Amino acid sequence: EARRGVERESYERKDITTRSLFLMGEIGINDYNHHFFQNRSFTAEIKPLVPLVILKIENATKVLIDLGAKTILVPGIPPMGCIPRFLNLLPSKNHNDYDKLGCLKWLNDFSQYHNRALKQMLQRIHHDPTVTLIYADYYGAMLKIVRSPQNNGFTKESVLRACCGVGGAYNADSLVCNGNATTSNLCTEPSRYISWDGLHLTEAAYHYIARGVLHGPYTEPAIPTRCTA
């Protein structure tokens, strides 16, 4: 009887693992954040982190596969050059450093560099043909909001400003927020903002991204319908 119970539990666990959609976090951006906020060298210290971060994601993905996961969603990182905290931290007097949306071009290029490396890893990783590895395009999903905020329920004026923050053109002056002045201004309409605190997105922004990931078009390949029902 005990053996049958163990076998039944093992079968149920395998069945759940087989039918579930596993989300591989949002790995990478915090590794880069830490170094940016410490004023580390981009060329010598931050960009060389990318292969190491990708390797960690690859190893974690392999662990999930070994545990029986069949459908794994691995997200890229968002356009860091459109994030208020980075716009405040890394200002440029050269207007050519910004795109027409007001985002830092070189920092968005870095985000795309990470995402390209991630997609290449997912294509080359060896796994059982019954396993589906899905790339989630957080970059494209967020950029769509930034480009057309009013079409997605956000306001044009708040696109590059933090909802809850204080100081500077982006309401995200980390030197003020983390210094002696610890107060911040609460926003009355968080659903109209993309950025919550200058670094993390609002619930409204994540809702838009989640919808685009679950139902398209921001995944490669599309998520199986059994995982979205």
Q: Which key features would you list for this structure?
A:
single chain; 229 residues; alpha/beta; four-stranded mixed sheet; 45% helix; globular
Written description of the protein model:
This protein is of the alpha/beta class and 229 residues long. It has one domain (2-227). 45% of the residues lie in helices and 7% in strands. It has nine helices and four strands; from the N terminus they run αβαααβααβαααβ. Strands 1-2-3-4 form a four-stranded mixed beta sheet. Helix 4 packs parallel to helix 6. The two termini are 35 Å apart.
Beta-strand content: 5-15%
Spatial ordering of strands, largest sheet: 1-2-3-4
Our Rg estimate from Cα atoms comes to 20 Å
Assign the structural class, choosing from mainly alpha, mainly beta, alpha/beta, alpha+beta, or little secondary structure.
alpha/beta
Number of H- or I-type helical stretches? 9
Give average pLDDT, whole number.
87
Which range best describes the helical content: under 10%, 10-25%, 25-40%, 40-55%, 55-70% or over 70%?
A: 40-55%
Distance from N terminus to C terminus (CA atoms, Å) equals 35 Å
Largest sheet: 4 strands, mixed
Number of strands: 4
**Which parts are unreliable, with pLDDT below 50 for 5 consecutive residues or more?**
none
H and E string = HEHHHEHHEHHHE
Instruction: Give the overall form.
Output: globular
Counted up, domains total: 1
